[in-house]
């Protein structure tokens, strides 16, 4: 069964809901304790770590608390009824969850252990302010800031390490590796050109203008300077191929001979001089 996060609001259509606390008493004598069975679900609805409301109960009741995060067990020493803890949870919600301006629970805590301050910001109305740190729970919060807190020094260091790890995963390279790659730019372009991964026009167009879209403009210029030998070779090869094409066109000219061409007619000329005739018998 769910209840309104702000139980002072009786509207049944109130959008912010949370599960009703379920408490289970275990043990006997001095070892008696109350396990809050669904503390993880309740804390999720409040957008707070489950350790915060559990510790709040301990502060209000003067009882020790235990957190078994691995098994999702949150314990308050002693025997406590669920209704009593539910009423006590209202106090936690009012102090550490609801926005002081609009009373909506869409808030985030911003913990700064160095300055010993706890800030509060509301996503619903835009409120930003500071919490009163006199409550005993605030000491616990300062020592254990929420994961979404952006001001903890420990978190900043962790984020730096994560960024370094992600850079390696994403293929980022060091300055020495960059220098080695730049020196091999002509070979890399040649391999990609031979494998038909890059077209000649694309490479030449790329070489004509340095862009700072992916790297700094200085590095882009340096890359293109290193690529000049290959670009020059490409342009010369293009000129030679265009000249060769013109020669091929000349060679491919076909000469056609017409069968109907007229042949000059040879006329027989008769000689009038009889003396010019040769008598074979006389010979």
UniProtKB/TrEMBL annotation:
<dbReference type="GO" id="GO:0071074">
    <property type="term" value="F:eukaryotic initiation factor eIF2 binding"/>
</dbReference>
<keyword id="KW-0648">Protein biosynthesis</keyword>
<dbReference type="GO" id="GO:0005092">
    <property type="term" value="F:GDP-dissociation inhibitor activity"/>
</dbReference>
<feature type="region of interest" description="Disordered">
    <location>
        <begin position="237"/>
        <end position="259"/>
    </location>
</feature>
<dbReference type="GO" id="GO:0001732">
    <property type="term" value="P:formation of cytoplasmic translation initiation complex"/>
</dbReference>
<feature type="region of interest" description="Disordered">
    <location>
        <begin position="148"/>
        <end position="178"/>
    </location>
</feature>
<dbReference type="GO" id="GO:0005886">
    <property type="term" value="C:plasma membrane"/>
</dbReference>
<dbReference type="InterPro" id="IPR045196">
    <property type="entry name" value="IF2/IF5"/>
</dbReference>
<feature type="compositionally biased region" description="Acidic residues">
    <location>
        <begin position="237"/>
        <end position="253"/>
    </location>
</feature>
<keyword id="KW-0342">GTP-binding</keyword>
<protein>
    <recommendedName>
        <fullName>Eukaryotic translation initiation factor 5</fullName>
    </recommendedName>
</protein>
<dbReference type="GO" id="GO:0006446">
    <property type="term" value="P:regulation of translational initiation"/>
</dbReference>
<dbReference type="InterPro" id="IPR016024">
    <property type="entry name" value="ARM-type_fold"/>
</dbReference>
<dbReference type="InterPro" id="IPR016190">
    <property type="entry name" value="Transl_init_fac_IF2/IF5_Zn-bd"/>
</dbReference>
<comment type="similarity">
    <text>Belongs to the eIF-2-beta/eIF-5 family.</text>
</comment>
<dbReference type="Pfam" id="PF02020">
    <property type="entry name" value="W2"/>
</dbReference>
<feature type="domain" description="W2">
    <location>
        <begin position="82"/>
        <end position="244"/>
    </location>
</feature>
<dbReference type="GO" id="GO:0003743">
    <property type="term" value="F:translation initiation factor activity"/>
</dbReference>
<dbReference type="GO" id="GO:0042255">
    <property type="term" value="P:ribosome assembly"/>
</dbReference>
<dbReference type="GO" id="GO:0005829">
    <property type="term" value="C:cytosol"/>
</dbReference>
<dbReference type="InterPro" id="IPR002735">
    <property type="entry name" value="Transl_init_fac_IF2/IF5_dom"/>
</dbReference>
<dbReference type="InterPro" id="IPR003307">
    <property type="entry name" value="W2_domain"/>
</dbReference>
<keyword id="KW-0547">Nucleotide-binding</keyword>
<dbReference type="GO" id="GO:0005525">
    <property type="term" value="F:GTP binding"/>
</dbReference>
<feature type="compositionally biased region" description="Basic and acidic residues">
    <location>
        <begin position="153"/>
        <end position="170"/>
    </location>
</feature>
<keyword id="KW-0396">Initiation factor</keyword>
<dbReference type="Pfam" id="PF01873">
    <property type="entry name" value="eIF-5_eIF-2B"/>
</dbReference>
<dbReference type="InterPro" id="IPR016189">
    <property type="entry name" value="Transl_init_fac_IF2/IF5_N"/>
</dbReference>
